[in-house]
Design a protein that fits this description.
The complex is a heterodimer of chains A (183) and B (386).
Chain A: H1 4-17, H2 23-31, H3 34-50, H4 56-70, H5 76-86, H6 89-102, H7 122-134, H8 143-179
Chain B: H1 2-16, H2 19-35, H3 48-56, H4 60-69, H5 73-84, H6 93-97, H7 101-120, H8 124-132, H9 144-150, H10 153-165, H11 168-184, H12 206-228, H13 238-266, H14 272-287, H15 292-301, H16 308-324, H17 332-348, H18 350-368, H19 370-384
Classes of the chains: A mainly alpha (183), B mainly alpha (386).
Chain lengths: 183, 386
Amino acid sequence: MIASPSSSSSARGSKKAITKPGFKDQAESKWRTAAQQRIYGRRLIDALRATAPSGPHAVKEASDSALALTARGQSRWSRAILLGRRRRPSCKFLLKARRGRRQPKPPPPALKQGMAASPEGKKVSDRLRVLGRLVPGCRKLSAPSLLEEAADYMVALEMQVKTMRALAEALSAASLNAAEPGS
Amino acid sequence: MEPPRSSGVGIDNSGEYSPEIAETLRFEEEIQSLIHPSSFDGSAAPTGGGSFTALLGLPANQAVELLHDSGAREPLASRIRVGGHPVHRPFHLPLDCSSAFPSNATLVDRAARFSVFAAEGSPASSSGRLKAEPQDSDSPPLDPIPTGPAKRKDTGRSKCDVRLSLSFKSQAKATAKKSKNAEENTDGDKLPYVHVRARRGQATDNHSLAERARREKINVRMKLLQELVPGCSKITGTALVLDEIINHVQTLQRQVEFLSMRLAAVNPRIDFSSLDSYLSAECGPVTVRNGPGGVVVDPSLWPTDATAEATRRLLVPQFWHIDLVPPQLQPQQSLTTWERDGAAHSQLLPNPTTSLFLYDPANSGNANVPHLTAKLKTAEDRALNL
């Protein structure tokens, strides 16, 4: 298939190349394995099937939820996604969306200037806040855990993108093929 | 002679108060011994007061003045001055100070107490105050001396030597600097002497340590992220790197959105029910692999769906479990929790929105398009065989 061999090789290659201990190892080895992609892919398919006629929003939600599931609850963002979806998905989704995206600018960055002035300048704290908003469920998180979550989230997103692209390609190709003979 | 007695006093006091005091007093004793190689006796208790002021090396009035200036910290300073001063006025004072005996006893008390406090960490204001001392022409030697005894004996001794060799005023500055440098490696802001910033080694102060650890944590994670994000290794500066990271995350999220739109566009054309058969075909041989807990858990979770949907869902989560079991065999319980969650979650997610829709394709799909199945299967296989 188009992306699969490259993605598989890249997945395996990246998995082997990265042997650093610590979070990175966990994140990388967790998300970049081919098995994980397969798992996620299948889950995605199921989810997609379940939400077939809905619009792209539902698809995205489903895929995000599937991604979070694949995370097995070891990361904060995955838990946040699942919990956000689980209880009253429509309300919670709307609430979170509104609050998250329509919120006015955060208060002036006089907050996190505690101890070290150089790495925790105003700009940095601003950006950390933005990052906290991007990663689901990590708004009020300390800097090191936020960075950790962001790393995990990024790797998961990369895997999600890869899988979804492959799936989309496969499905579109299949639908094209199916459409040709005239269904 | 007085100095021996003073040292004796020191010993007595140390016996009363604390080992730190004992050290400091022993230090003074050693200093004295350096100056006057006479033997010391440790049993000169009652002369403590007089010898204290004698140790001060200044006339009693000055000593008292110093003591009263800063209240509590004085005795420390003054007492510590003792160590440096015997050089200059060891012999004259004892006679003068004997008159000031009673007050000296209290001074000794306070000195002892505050040496303890100094060792443990008296307020930094004392250090500030001591720092102000060199500006006073009265008692320049106060500065180096306070630092000496409360610190390690060796450094104190070396300082004492320095002091002995130089004049007092210059000594004050030099030893103050030396003490500053030496202080860096010891407690940070705890001791009163530390008007020092920990520039040389690393500060061992709790605050600085915590700061350093925190910064290290953040830096490590930033490095990780830098490696994750392509093209971020060249960027220096936390803010810019964070910019890149944010950019990257936003890009990925946007890609997910576009792909989801694409999938949504593709979806209606494909009967996902065909995937059912695809999956069910896989389920057969796979159930063998399934762990004992996996299959059992599923039926209990969907009491609601009693229709054909239920069977379909049963197949689906089984499949999930099958997928999950091989990669992660250890935490069976967590697996089941997550499988349950996943299954229940999948239940919940589509239920409110698509419950109506689900029935139709499911019921109708099975009969519809077998030819699509094969194609889809191959396509899916190719897509997923990564």
